[in-house]
Specification:
This protein is an alpha/beta fold. Helix content is 34%, strand content 15%. The structure holds pyridoxal-5'-phosphate (PLP). Pyridoxal-5'-phosphate (PLP) binds at residues 12, 77-79, 106, 151, 155, 175, 177-178, 196.
Length: 368
Amino acid sequence: MDKKQTINFGAGPAKLPQSVLLQAQKELIDYNGIGISVLEMSHRSSDFSKIINNTENLLRELLDIPDNYKVMFLQGGGSGQFSAVPLNLIGLKEDRCADYIVTGTWSAKAAKEAEKYGKVNIIHPKLDAYTKIPDSSVWSLNPSASYVYYCCNETVHGVEFNFVPDAKGAILVSDMSSNFLSRPVDVSKFGLIFAGAQKNVGCAGVTVVIVREDLLGKALKECPVVLDYQVQAGNNSLYNTPPCFSIYIMGLVLEWIKNNGGTEAMERLNKQKSGIIYDIINSSNGFYSCPVDPECRSRMNVPFRVGKKEGDEALEKKFLDGASKLGMISLKGHRSVGGIRASLYNAVTVEDAEVLAAYMKEFLKEHH
Ligand code: PLP
């Protein structure tokens, strides 16, 4: 195989659509003929108002967000929301407790952070390895919990919910950082959804928070003002300087998603791309193996080992070196799990997945 171009399979910050980069490049120095860059623009200017309103409107349209939900564009990343969620919502009920469905690193971190502000109930027995979603029959939801929290796609382990958990009437909160806008979502089932932009919808620096209006105004008194949803929503995310350029880039990505068929089209393509890679893993007679239960294998992040079930590290290094020579980068698994991880976010094309698949087949033939 010859190297044709660089293909970024990174888990985030991740690949952006080429057309978005080209437009940002074109507009970098002189945005829309006004003589300055978005990087230099006041967040209180009418030009920036148009940018942030456009980004919000596109998001509302793409996800069909009901009118009784506020949309915010905040700083602090997904990790900032691990604190903001309990600071704003754990006091919704007197007991100050919350249920956390822990299925991987990111939900575990969120649960640990929430413990600073109230009682956290991990709603199923501790998992030895993050390779499955325990059956909901073993979930012990606490009826006095202020909310039920889960991470929709565990980026490190490649564990994805393909259903919306039944919170039994409690407020449902989801971290959708690594599968946001990769498929349609019924926002009305959630009290709150948040997502860092740097995987599926833009670049690092901005985190989207979608929250039902009646949940605002219940923050603990120790909640920092910049994390207080009522303050941020009441100021249209302009209580303090927002990540202006990241919001602008998100607007371009949302436009691109809209022009490419919206969330339904993203879902179809994401299934196709991940299917191409999982098919090779499944038909490799154990040369490639994915530890994740087939029921919850992620369409976004495909982790796999090479050579044997627990991974042949020398062979995996060879696999990564060979991929890199062909222009396929950032395929190394997260340092906590090792192996390989192919991230196939919205901007990764079917052709990109096919290039990886062809390489996997060739590598298998040479080494099996
Ligand atoms: N949640 C998920 C699912 C993630 O994948 C990540 C980062 O990769 C985070 C949260 C943390 O995001 P940040 O690095 O923006 O704080």
